[in-house]
Amino acid sequence: MPEIHPTALVSENAQLDDDVEVGPFSIIEDGVIIRFGCRINSHAKICRGVIMGKENIIEHGAVIGGAPQDLGFNLNTDSGVLIGDGNTFREYVTIHRSTRAGGNTIIGNENYLMAVAHLAHDVVIGNNNILANNTMLAGHVTLGNNTFLGGGAGVHQFTRIGDCAMIQGNAVMTRDVPPYCIVHQVNQLSGLNSVGLKRAGFSPAERKEIKLAHTILFRTKGSRAESLAEADLQTWGEAATALIEAVRTPSSKGILTR
To answer: Is residue 255 part of a domain?
Structure first.
């Protein structure tokens, strides 16, 4: 049986694997599914529509699956949050469910969200990301893999942040962040995340090719179309191609290139 503290409120319609731990005064609502190895600490709330994989840690006061902060949202909408494996959500993290019927906010595997980080409705994040304290992702933001977002960073709705990007604390992003890049202040690029590329396991050859593509796209004079045309004169590996295609096909918000 799950280990449930006597003061916790767990719905009879929730599904908890046998070794799940639920701490004092926590609330788990109808229809929640929590797989083995998860630990729900004190005063946390797991709302209806949340499906959680294995070995996740939910710390004190976190609220997972709350209603979107959308003035037009119908509280009867059937939506949820899908969480993978091995994630850590520290104190007072908030994650909101989707605004769309049948939709989900989606979190991958091995992510670490520090205290008071916030994921709004319909956010999708990949794997192995670190979001420092008070990081804020607005609705429909897409976050790749192996990124680091500094404390207090704010990301505008519908934007994309590519793999291995690094965001300075208190930075603001209202346009897409290309893969492998560093952003500071307000929509300001400041070069490649070379350390992050090494840590993510990119080979020296891949890093060299990414650097060359970055130089063509962001360091040469001329328009974006001219930079892409120059890049298209060469043959690229998968990693560098991801950078080029991110610049070629941004979201509706556009992409940072300078």
So the answer is: no
pLDDT in tens, 121-171: 999 999 999 999 999 999 999 999 999 999 999 999 999 999 999 999 999
Q: Assess whether 121 carries a catalytic annotation.
A: yes
- Are residues 88 and 117 located together in one domain of the fold? yes
Catalytic member of 43, 122, 154, 176? 122
Q: Could you read off the pLDDT of 20-58 as tens digits, one per residue?
A: 999 999 999 999 999 999 999 999 999 999 999 999 999
**How many other CB atoms are there within 10 angstroms of residue 237's CB atom?**
13
In sequence order, which ranges of the chain are alpha helices (DSSP H)? 194-199, 204-214, 224-231, 238-248
DSSP string, 5-44: -TT-EE-TT-EE-TT-EE-TT-EE-TT-EE-TT-EE-TT-
Asked about 184 being catalytic, the answer comes back as: no
Helix (H, G, I), strand (E, B) or coil at 2: coil
Note if 49 is an active site residue: no
- 33 and 108 housed in the same domain: yes
Looking at the structure of the chain, the number of domains it has is: 2
Q: Is 258 among the domain residues? A: no
DSSP code for 55: S
Token pair belonging to 246: 């991110």
Token representation of residue 174: 């209202």
Scored b (16 or more CB within 10 A) or e, 30-57 reads ebbbbbebbbbbebbbbbbbbbbbbbbb
Tell me which of 96, 118, 121, 184 is the catalytic residue.
Answer: 121
Indicate which residue of 49, 139, 144, 154 is catalytic.
139
